[in-house]
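Support reply, case 0932

Customer input (verbatim):
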Amino acid sequence: MNYRLNEYLKKNTEAAPLAVFRIFFGLMMLISIIRFWSYGWIDKLYVKPSFFFSYYGLEFIKPLGNYTYFIFALCGISTIFITIGYKYRIAIVTFFLSFTYIELMDKTTYLNHYYFISVLSFLLIFLPANAYYSLDAKLKGTSFQKIPAWSIDAVKLLLGIVYFYAGLAKLNSDWLQKAMPLKIWLPSKYDTPIIGDIMQQEWVHYVFSYTGVIYDLAIPFLLIYRKTRIFAFVMVVIFHVLTRVLFPIGMFPYIMIVSAMIFFDSSIHHRILQFFSKIFRIAKANFDTGKTLNFLPSKTKIIAPVLVLFFVIQLLLPFRYVLYPGELFWTEEGYRFSWRVMLMEKAGYANFKIVDKETGKRFYVDNDDFLSPFQQKQMATQPDFILEYAHYLQAHFEKQGHQNVQVFVESHVALNGRLSTQYIDPNVDLGKQKESFKHKTWIIPFKDEIKGL
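Our regenerated output:
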């Protein structure tokens, strides 16, 4: 076993696929930052709100007012350096830190693909993506046409985990037996050109559901196998273009399309680089040195355990939900960071009641005074949001001079087309409840059952 592992670690491959991946990754991220800025979302999501929902243990990460623009600017500039491969290591570290800071500023904006970008950029810190066809290689006068095979396989493995785990998550009774939540979402796409009419048909909802499962579970293996690779890539393009047309998920479909290209042989990537070379008048031949990059043993001793730990976490973290009782979709304890993509539709409301414990006097909070409409929508169906907001309200009214403040919530939630039912125990003073990784006992148990992983 050790012999095979050592042999694998010594195996080299063409660096072109990783160079192309670096270029497309940098470009996609640059476009994403420009798009986010141009739509005014920085101001809307991170400057105007007066309250932000934090991740447990990371409450110190907050938007910086108007200085938040600086973080986005820094992130955007780093993507340019990544694309051209200049000061790559500093650039990718800067991008990882700035992008992850942006992601963690407000839990309200959490999306699986933001998490994917943070995870991927962390992985790229340890890969020699600037060894070939980069400004770093040109300035140093040393271009490595071959790099360790594991540096490309690591990206393939991460993509495989994302797809496969997303497929496993779809193996539940709501998705397979009820076509939920697609049965809720797709009919609203009636105005989509060409395909809008059939979006009303129930059989289409089931076709989409089962196709989604099969696609996610199979696509990593189809991309790896040479004979099915072209077919698989066509499926990647069709699948992600269709999801982009039907759902407002930003740049994520395009990011996944260009990422899948890393599975192709190096000959295709050399053609892509040759195309870039003609456009920008780059002498590609200067990079084709035939040299091989070999990591020093001291460097390998650092990188190897980091990457092993990285992938162990990626493999295990999505299953942390088994440590909690109750229905995952209802409690959402262990739901985030697990590649559970578009699996549920939750709608609800949460009315907060402030009570003076001594006198019994009470009044209801107008959530519009503290939260944006988007924040209210997210808060109403997620217990950790409800708890954090309750603590904020308690502190706010105590500062105003109110005594013996208790915070109760009257909330109802509907999950995947079910009737709305009571969500949080209305008799529990949330001001006394502490946030932790423990199960929140004040969540009213789910009245139904969703079978699956």
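We compared this against your earlier run and they match. Two observations from our side: The beta strands are 12-14, 146-148, 346-356, 362-364, 405-415, 421-422. The CA atoms of residues 244 and 447 lie 34 Å apart. Please reopen the case if you see a mismatch on your end.
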